[in-house]
């Protein structure tokens, strides 16, 4: 009985701890720049209201709002030059190899247009449009008091509240997960006080009309050939209580209403030729519901995702400070533990809000863009960015959000097979460092960065991670052809390097980095950069394991087994650092933002804490320093967590949360200056969402790891996080883990199997004086290889409890 009570108390403590928080972003004044605005989104459409008092701008987004079109950017006879390039690289004449590459081994045509591809076939993700609202308070004095603006993470609803002339006004904004519209609800605590004029526009390519009571915006983006690209339509309806509504020019004007709801329906022709009917149907259906019903359904659905995991770093926090002030305070005073809770859940919130089954994965800005020419075309970069966007997904218990990513990668197989033939005369499929929604797989337009060859294998590793976490064999069956096609490509495309007989990729880059050849010349193209070797080891092992599980392709597996041992091993240089290239080159920029050669430490798993290679990785990290762009800082949190250095990981988290100046919004900084905008969007700068996701993943990595075949509890806990708990983070092997700790020592934990699983816990992470319990009975785990081992059937749990 007592045990049962203990168990109940444990369960309650863990879930309550995670739920007790009211996590929100909040501010005392309207947004001054777009990066102050609170983002809402339902995975397909979204908005960023600025909360203006007399004028409000609400940027609207649709994740399919892409210019450009499918294209064949492959140079069909590139493979004729491959051997020559490879020979030169293996001889050490990288510069001569590059000269040939500049002509023959880049894409055909302008590619991404040096990150300015809006009017090219490459295209760009862009804003849908702006909704502009002019409020009329019937008074010249529009000074507001008691102003607040917030975004509630528990409900995915944003608000603006203020008092003006003794009237209290409230606006609520949501991007409904269930009704698929954006809705804004406006109320006042006195009758007849809601008056506004509402219009829509965008910087180019749009027409607005009023049809009946409906404001419509339509247009067509450039496809980069004849101008006839993606078509779009936005529809806006206002449902009012009292007052009068009329069309004035191309705007809707509401006068003296008691309350109003603005319903916004957005759609494009991207994979939806019937977008006009779709937007009408969605709008009509949504308007059957009043705002309260709409909000209730929205919140209920959202919480089924959001509520799947949480953390609660105890020891206080400054939740009562407005978020912008809070960031500034945290810069000099790290005693704000609940900021980590907020940042972790904000990452999960952004992920839930920016991707949705079978549409598209979050792009460089997730779902939120306020320009037509988004930085780097707002595309999908395969040399860190799209992968980082998915890092918190598995550990953060949102595995279902993996689908759009899988669909995007599946779309690369066909064009990637054409690219594989054209450049390497190889079977299978390959993609280079950038892609878009049109299946771009060709190399980039510049060989210094565009020759990176294993971005597509890295995609496979990410998709394989979903299997590692879930053990879902139906999923594995769908994934397997992708793995096989990718492995087949590299198997064929690699060559033997002469010094050791290792199998290497050639040509390739260590992403975006440049080195000095022994003769002092600078080069970027190389053979067998460390990252390629690490990624391919993982890809080959994963493909072998997958083939094994699915009982298929014995002969192919044998080939992979023979090849995988011929990949170059990780090498340590004279200076003790892990080598980034096959040779010990000096890098041109020692603090370069990419840390590609540490891939094997994170997200890979071949470098484990406490090993000599981990020391080399540490030396490399020390060499690169603790500054960087937003995503680079976020990556470093994960690296330090994997090295089990919690305090250093915390230092990097602190860096990620460094407030950036307003000017950072419009300037690209490639070297350092990463940090966070007022709305907690990560700053590369400019805004780039990968750092948000990398940061959230890093926090989880500090609390739980499972990449070495066993669970590590609190592997990198900083001194700052003395007490706390987390709930339902996921470990590989289909296990949800919840735990509490005090004075940095585990006090209780719970493990739930989401499939038939073998729970393996690092024995050293279980403090003395604790026991395992299942169904109220103490159980004794087996001990094997330094782990405590317990078999768990699907949907069963076991607990780790204090002995008394
Ligand atoms: C890679 C990075 C840049 C930037 C871009 C979108 O090229 O090297 O820093 O994040 O992607």
Comma- or semicolon-separated keywords:
disordered N terminus, alpha-L-fucosidase activity, binds alpha-L-fucopyranose, 7-stranded antiparallel sheet, Glycosyltransferase, Beta-galactosidase, Chain A, domain 5, 31% helix, signal, Immunoglobulin-like, alpha+beta, single chain, 804 residues, 9-stranded antiparallel sheet
Task: Show the helix and strand layout.
Elements (H helix, E strand, L loop, with lengths): L1 H18 L4 E4 L12 E2 L3 E5 L5 E8 L19 H10 L2 H11 L24 E7 L9 E8 L4 E8 L2 E9 L6 E7 L5 E8 L5 E5 L2 E7 L10 E11 L2 E5 L2 E7 L1 E10 L6 H13 L3 H16 L3 E4 L9 H10 L5 H17 L25 E2 L3 H4 L2 H5 L7 H22 L9 E2 L11 H4 L4 H16 L2 H21 L1 E2 L6 E2 L3 E2 L5 E2 L5 E2 L1 E2 L3 H20 L4 H11 L21 E2 L24 H13 L5 H13 L3 H11 L18 E2 L5 E2 L6 H14 E2 L6 E2 L10 E8 L3 E8 L2 E9 L3 E6 L7 E5 L2 E3 L2 E3 L2 E6 L4 E6 L2
Antiparallel strand pairs: 1-6, 2-3, 3-4, 4-5, 5-10, 6-7, 7-8, 8-9, 9-16, 10-15, 11-12, 12-13, 13-16, 14-15, 17-31, 18-19, 20-21, 22-25, 23-24, 23-26, 27-28, 29-30, 31-32, 32-33, 33-39, 34-38, 35-36, 35-39, 37-38
The site of alpha-L-fucopyranose has 13 residues, from loops.
């Amino acid at each position: 009985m007592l045990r049962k009570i203990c168990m109940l108390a444990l369960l309650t403590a863990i879930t309550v701890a995670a739920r007790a928080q009211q996590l929100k972003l909040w501010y005392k004044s309207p947004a001054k720049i777009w990066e102050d605005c609170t983002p809402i989104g339902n995975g397909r459409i979204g908005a960023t209201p600025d909360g203006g008092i007399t004028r409000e701008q609400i940027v609207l987004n649709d994740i399919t709002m892409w210019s450009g079109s499918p294209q064949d950017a492959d140079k069909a006879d590139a493979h004729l030059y491959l051997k020559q390039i490879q020979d030169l690289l293996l001889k050490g004449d990288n510069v001569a190899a590059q000269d040939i590459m500049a002509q023959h081994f880049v894409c055909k045509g302008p590619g991404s247009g040096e990150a300015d591809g809006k009017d090219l076939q490459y295209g760009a993700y862009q804003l849908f449009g702006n909704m502009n609202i002019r409020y009329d308070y019937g008074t010249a004095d529009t000074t507001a008091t008691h102003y607040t603006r917030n975004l509630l993470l528990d409900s995915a609803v944003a608000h603006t509240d203020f008092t003006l002339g003794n009237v209290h006004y409230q606006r609520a904004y949501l991007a409904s997960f269930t009704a698929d519209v954006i809705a804004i609800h406006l109320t006042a605590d006195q009758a007849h006080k809601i008056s506004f004029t509402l219009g829509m526009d965008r910087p180019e390519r749009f027409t607005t009309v009023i049809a009946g009571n409906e404001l419509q915006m339509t247009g067509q983006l450039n496809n980069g050939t004849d101008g006839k690209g993606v078509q779009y339509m936005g529809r806006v309806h206002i449902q009012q209580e009292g007052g009068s509504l009329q069309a004035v020019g191309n705007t809707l004007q509401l006068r003296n209403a008691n309350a109003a709801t603005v319903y916004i329906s957005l759609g494009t022709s991207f994979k939806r030729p019937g977008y006009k009917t779709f937007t009408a149907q969605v709008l009509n259906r949504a308007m059957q519901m009043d705002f309260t019903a709409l909000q209730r359904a929205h919140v209920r659905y959202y919480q089924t995702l959001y509520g799947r995991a949480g953390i609660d770093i105890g020891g206080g926090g400054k939740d009562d400070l407005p978020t912008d002030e809070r960031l500034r305070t945290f810069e000099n005073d790290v005693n704000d533990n609940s900021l980590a809770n907020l940042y972790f859940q904000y990452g999960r919130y952004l992920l839930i809000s920016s991707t949705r089954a079978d549409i598209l994965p979050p792009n460089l800005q997730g779902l939120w863009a306020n320009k037509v020419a988004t930085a780097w075309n707002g595309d999908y970069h395969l040399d860190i960015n799209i992968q980082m966007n998915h890092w918190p997904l598995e550990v953060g218990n949102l595995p279902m959000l993996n689908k759009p990513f899988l669909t995007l990668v599946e779309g690369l197989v066909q064009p990637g097979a054409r690219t594989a033939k054209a450049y390497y005369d190889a079977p299978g499929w390959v993609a280079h460092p950038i892609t878009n929604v049109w299946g771009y797989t060709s190399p980039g337009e510049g060989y210094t960065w565009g020759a990176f060859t294993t971005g597509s294998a890295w995609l496979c590793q990410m998709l394989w991670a979903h299997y590692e976490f879930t053990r879902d064999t139906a999923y594995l069956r769908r994934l397997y052809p992708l793995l096989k096609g990718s492995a087949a490509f590299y198997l064929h495309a690699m060559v033997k390097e002469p010094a050791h007989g290792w199998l290497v990729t050639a040509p390739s880059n260590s992403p975006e980095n440049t080195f000095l050849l022994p003769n002092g010349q600078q080069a970027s193209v190389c053979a067998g950069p460390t990252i390629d070797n690490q990624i391919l080891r993982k890809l080959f092992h994963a493909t072998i394991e997958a083939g094994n599980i699915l009982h298929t392709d014995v002969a192919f597996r044998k080939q992979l087994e023979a090849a995988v041992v011929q990949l170059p091993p990780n090498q340590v240089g004279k200076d003790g650092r892990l080598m980034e290239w096959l040779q010990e080159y000096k890098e041109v920029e020692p603090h370069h933002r990419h840390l590609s050669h540490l891939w094997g430490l994170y997200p890979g798993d071949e470098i484990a804490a406490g090993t000599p290679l981990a020391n080399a990785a540490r030396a490399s990290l020390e060499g690169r320093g603790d500054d960087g762009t937003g995503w680079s800082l976020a990556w470093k949190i994960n690296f330090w967590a994997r090295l089990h250095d919690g305090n250093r990981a915390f230092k990097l988290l602190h860096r990620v949360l460094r407030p950036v100046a307003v000017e950072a919004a419009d300037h690209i900084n490639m070297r350092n200056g990463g940090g966070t905008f007022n709305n907690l969007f990560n700053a590369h700068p400019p805004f780039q969402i990968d750092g948000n996701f990398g940061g959230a993943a890093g926090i989880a990595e500090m609390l739980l790891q499972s990449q070495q075949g066993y669970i590590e509890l609190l592997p990198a806990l900083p001194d700052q996080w003395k007490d706390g708990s987390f709930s339902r983070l996921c470990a590989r092997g289909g296990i949800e883990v919840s735990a509490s700790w005090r004075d940095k020592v585990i006090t209780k934990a719970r493990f739930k199997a989401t499939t038939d699983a073998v729970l393996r816990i690092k024995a050293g992470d279980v403090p003395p004086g604790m026991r395992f319990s299942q169904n109220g009975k103490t159980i004794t785990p087996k001990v094997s290889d330094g782990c405590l081992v317990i078999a768990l059937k699907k949907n069963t749990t076991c607990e780790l409890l204090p002995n008394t």
